[in-house]
Amino acid sequence: MTRLSPGATIGVLGGGQLARMMAQAGARLGLKTHVFSPVADDPAFDVCAARTQADFLDEAALAAFAEAVDVVTYEFENVPARTAEVLEAHRPVRPNPRVLALTQDRLVEKQFIRGLGLSTAEFADVRDPQTLADAVAALGRPSILKTRRFGYDGKGQARIADGGDLAQTFAALDGAPCILEGFVPFTKEISIVAARGIDGEFRAYDVCENVHEHHILATTTAPAAISAATAAAAVEATRRIAEAAEYVGVIAVEMFVVRKDETEELVINEIAPRVHNSGHWTLDGAETSQFEQHMRAVAGWPLGSTQRHGVSVTMRNLIGHDADRWPQLLSEDGTCLHLYGKKETRDGRKMGHVTRIQR
Length: 359
Prior knowledge:
Mean pLDDT: 96
Strand content: 25-35%
CATH topology of the largest domain: D-amino Acid Aminotransferase, Chain A, domain 1
Shape: globular
CATH architecture of the largest domain: 2-Layer Sandwich
Helix content: 25-40%
Number of strands: 17
Radius of gyration: 20 Å
Number of helices: 11
CATH superfamily of the largest domain: ATP-grasp fold, B domain
CATH class of the largest domain: Alpha Beta
Order of helices and strands: EHEEHEHHHEHEEHEEEEEHEEHHEHEE
């Protein structure tokens, strides 16, 4: 199977806001979405055509889910490897499960990127306090200790600064296998959201510039204030990654911009094998949103235009009780409000976002 027809069903693993916006984008194209999630009140359940609430390792539920859909995708990368294996025996999984294995382990991911001749921070494998001490001696301080698996939005990581107790720092991450990354003196954080189709077609959105607060993305602005040469290099690096991984769907690659002798150099931070928070601006600010683009790609359809609307576009996340300002935001001309329908407001939780387009 290479191309679905309108009316086909795309299965999505995970039911958060990304799955919700994928389902909404698919519905506009006549594609149905069946969401599989263990969480009863996930926001995607409000807008999908069908739902399965079950554990990701419930193989009977997975088999039934596979029989009910035409292709499977996912909204986050921490899907158990066994889940992808079970589903792939029944239906195409896009992006392919090998991409999950690659991006679930920071050490494997860094080795993959380096193998393509692309730059990353210096890094070392850390298995215990002694290998951490050896890695710090080699990479210096400050540096960042991260768990190899299951980290996001600043979770699962610790800064190694002067005077810090290395054994305590390692223990604070529950003794999990880790990677130590050398400090990168970056001037900007950027990301590239792009898509690759089943026929190898590749389209990238404008490189965007990201600002984080408390380890969570606060704002994204497109296009990034970088040189044309740097933007072209960032897009080309993303293309190389997608092609090497035989990727199908939307991919995001986060990078640091480092200035050296009046030039800009790129250091790749991580790969996100899915639609991405820094691509939310495309919902209102591009001819084809990242969510529609992903549904097109996994359905085997032609990719859409990534042309930006306006001079620039800025997206701001609504974190926790920021979303309580919705009446004020709705009253502001030029502001596009997106709320994710989450039942509980918590500090640090992404509740929605707003987009503003400069004409």
